[in-house]
Design a protein that fits this description.
- There is one protein chain.
- By secondary structure, the protein is of the alpha/beta class.
- Helices cover about 35% and strands about 20% of the residues.
- The protein is built from 9 helices and 14 strands.
- The strands form 4 sheets. The protein has an 8-stranded parallel β-sheet with strand order 5-2-1-12-11-10-9-6, sandwiched between helices. A two-stranded antiparallel ribbon has the order 3-4.
């Protein structure tokens, strides 16, 4: 079984310091949390960025500032910018970090009811537009799928040439409006992707660690971090993203999976080695 790639989603666009004081906003805080996750065993930093007051932004200048600061401390880590942004942003606004030519970036594969009147909109044309941009720039998409229908959309657009193989999926499970985080649903999603595809599981809230264990056993990969869950255990706030990664490393050790370093993660995902 190949080694386990751990992704750390260190801040997201919605979670606040009110939820956990360690949620990063500033450049220094982002570097601190990225380092804590990397030192614990994460090979990929899934990156949203904020202004210092916590406001989410897709501004490429802010992304570059934070990416450069992280790279100065941990040069070999894979940095995966989000193109999800926040509800209400335009396509071109969301795509700004792709202008920095990252190795990977997220590509959301469908529309979702986030709750109340919030709709995270990703039309078929939006997905095509994002897919074309990533092919043009040589960026490997992480296909964010919040439901089975989104996997089907990705497979259909792959056949039409908008998404290249081998594909890498991220099953985001337990989000309001999407598929639940039950083991039954993990098995359903897992059985719906091509045999040459890789996948990561991101369980939201209480689903984070049970789904991490399922992915470890199955041979998949795992995402944890403050974007998805701020608790180390029930009622106990995590002190850092690194603590969440450490818990996955302990699970992997008990279940017999070795942890991939960034070089090994690039080999597994088909990314070019860094010089």
């Amino acid at each position: 079984m190949e080694k386990l790639i751990i992704t750390a989603a260190i801040c997201g666009a919605e979670v606040l310091k009110e939820h956990n004081p360690a949620v990063p906003y500033t450049v220094a805080e982002m570097v601190r949390e990225a380092k804590s996750a990397y030192n614990a065993g994460a090979s990929i930093i899934h990156l949203h960025v904020r202004y210092d007051d916590g406001t989410p932004t897709q501004d490429k200048v802010r992304f570059k500032e934070i990416i450069d600061a992280i790279r100065a401390e941990i040069p070999d880590v894979i940095i995966q910018p989000s193109t999800g942004g926040a509800v209400g942003m335009t396509n071109d606004e969301r795509l700004q970090p792709t202008e920095l030519n990252p190795e990977m970036a997220t590509l959301d594969c469908g529309t979702l009811n986030f709750g109340g009147d919030e709709i995270f909109e990703n039309t078929e044309n939006t997905i095509k537009y994002f897919g074309e941009r990533m092919i043009e720039r040589g960026i490997k998409p992480e296909l964010e799928c919040f439901d089975k229908s989104m996997i089907d959309m990705a497979l259909r657009l792959h056949k039409k040439g908008y998404i290249k193989a081998p594909m890498h999926f991220d099953f985001v499970m337990g989000v309001n409006g999407g598929i639940s985080g039950e083991l039954r649903d993990f098995v359903f999603l897992r059985g719906s992707i091509p045999s040459d595809a890789t996948y990561t599981v991101a369980g939201i809230g209480r689903y984070e660690f049970p789904l991490a264990a399922a992915a470890i056993i199955d041979g998949g990969h795992v995402r944890v971090g403050f974007e998805d869950n701020v608790y180390l255990s029930k009622g106990v706030l995590a002190k850092s993203n690194g603590e969440l990664v450490e818990k996955v490393v302990r699970l992997a050790k008990e279940l017999g999976r070795e942890i991939a370093n960034p070089h090994e993660a690039r080999q597994i995902l088909g990314l070019k080695p860094i010089k």
